[in-house]
From TrEMBL:
Positions of transmembrane segments: none
Phylogenetic classification of the source organism: Eukaryota, Metazoa, Chordata, Craniata, Vertebrata
Cofactor list: Mg(2+)
Alphabetic keyword roster: GTP-binding, Hydrolase, Lipoprotein, Nucleotide-binding, Prenylation
Record region (Disordered): 170-190
GO molecular function ontology, one term from the record: GTP binding
InterPro entries noted in UniProt: P-loop_NTPase (IPR027417), Small_GTP-bd (IPR005225), Small_GTPase (IPR001806)
Name of the protein this chain belongs to: Ras-related protein Rab-5B
PANTHER family documented for this protein: PTHR47978
UniProt KW NADP keyword: no
Any GO CC annotation of this UniProt entry: endomembrane system
Amino acid sequence: MTSKSTARSNGQPQASKICQFKLVLLGESAVGKSSLVLRFVKGQFHEYQESTIGAAFLTQSVCLDDTTVKSEIWDTAGQERYHSSASVYYSGAQAATVVHDSTNQETLARAKTWVKELQRQASPSIVIALAGNEAGLASKRMAEYEEAQACADDNSLLFMETSADSYERRSRGVDLHEQSQQNKSQCCST
């Protein structure tokens, strides 16, 4: 972490600490990884998102209290032919989000496989989150909330349900959308 003690041009104090980390998104093809990243970084949603080839790299900074959190985000391709190269992207990552489509039971089974791989091969200190995407499509839900929650509990993972199109995020104990917007308005401009 780096410390700074400067003021922004509007007189508001700037974050005094900077924390930079690498985040990788993993999961099957078409579960919404790219849509989630695009919504987080640019505030955009495209109903028909092209498949990622290999991996995409984006960055985003968010201010939390007196800390600026700079994220280097690697959005990996979910197609099986790219699976062997995924370790290049999660190597050295401090955090990983494994995404599954809550309307497709098979993607939760595959997400569990990604979690096991991360636990075996990634850094022992990596923080892993399990994200059930498409939470806004509750009527089509196939991967039950309870099963995903149990997987997260059994593996000491953070767990959230999200929807890139409605920017809805629910997680255990934290309202990420409210916190992010509140803190962003307090100290950051992008």
